[in-house]
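Sample entry as discussed:
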Amino acid sequence: MASKPISSQASSNNIKKEAEIPSSKRLPLLLKDPRKRWWVIVPVILILAVIGVGAYYKLVYLPAHQTAIAPLQTTIVHKGDLTVSAKGTGILQPANEVQLGFGISGRLVTLNVKAGDQVTKGQLLAQLDNTDQLVKYAQAQRTLANLTSPAAIAQAQNDVATAKTTLSNATDALKYVISPAVFESEQKVLADQQALADAQTAAGASPTTDQQAIIDAAQAKLKSDQDKVTGNQIWYQKYYLPLYFTIKAADPTSTSNSHRAVKIVEGPSALEIETSQSAYDVAKTAVQQNQWYLDALNGQDVPVNAGGTKLQAYQTAKYNVQTAKANLDGSQIYAPMSGTIISISAKLNDNVNKSPFIVLGDLTDLYLKTYVSEKDYQMFQVGSEADIIFDALPDQTFLGKVVQVNPILDKSTNTAVVGGLVQMDPTKANLLMGMSASVDIIVARTQNAVLVPLAALHEYTPGKYAVFVMRNGKLSVDFVEVGLKDQINAEITSGLKTGDIVSTGLVGTKQQ
């Protein structure tokens, strides 16, 4: 029993000694003591676990279950210009450009101009050696003058009179052998046949009611006159031949020496009738041909089918004069209009052919041969304004107007385009023909308009729009009226004013 107080006192002394040990040396002593080691490890593990859980939650869990909240995207309503246009390309060309060359080949002996010269209409630009052409032209003129002299015209008049006399005699001869009645009725049939042919030609394959009536009447008249010919031929055999072609001849049945005579009808033979008809036809043709020739000499029109050796000689002489004059004219080049010499591709003493070698242009009005994409064809309209920027003059904008739009797509390249002409407004700029330019065909434009980006518009029904407006840090919905729109901005005609702040999109996240 006496030993317990001693032990208790020793324990108390040990604790007191440990308490007197500094704290910096106390932890190593505890770790050396197996019984006291867990007093330190367990709290440290708990602290580290708490820190790890917190770090996982903050660095792993939250990023996986939450997206970053971006700021609200806004813009300020402002004023500016807005243009709706179709983009195109163009090549500068003069209002009128002609390529000039000679009508014949030869040696160039005169060249009165150079590139850049201003010329007037009718001015001689160039000439070939035309000595041979001058001689041939003079010869052709003399030949024609001989054919059209007063003496030649008088001879032609005499030939017509002679031909008419011959025709009169041939007509009388033919009437005698076939009878005047048959002759006249046959002439009427010929006239009827011509009238019917003319009516059928005029009517064509599908005659109108009036044209068919004319054809029917011509056919009826022809039939009537043909019947008269038949009747007159019967009368000819029965009455005309006995009256004019009865002769006396010996009676072949008589046996006495009295040689009694009898009357017999001996009409003209078929050869006599054919010969008389041929003479009449030749005389009639001669009258017509001599009359055509006289008419031509007197400057009157003759039918296209007019013929005759005299008329042919006259027409050949006229043609030779025209050909010689054309060749002479072809040896010279005169300016067909006033303008500027754009280029010349030949020099003096060159042998040139009919190919053009002078380009003359009227630079008073300039045009751009313009092409736009097929998808923009509805915006490419005659009368539309155009902004023109030449590749060589990127800092200058020229104005123009669409004056022509081709009615068919141009598929000469791999892309289908619409072609047309844009007339430039007058300018004193030093432009070169053939310069390339970008051309904006203006559909509509507005200046000093209230503008917002397209991203700010919300179409709640077709053609009706609203925007989100920031006021006092909060968004509100305003309904607006929209005018023109291009690829970026829209014109606001009602509902907003300059300086308003509108949202162009809400970019944010929500907790999942």
Summary: The first strand starts at residue 73 and ends at 76. The chain is about 40% helix and 30% strand. Residues 209-244 form the longest helix (36 residues).
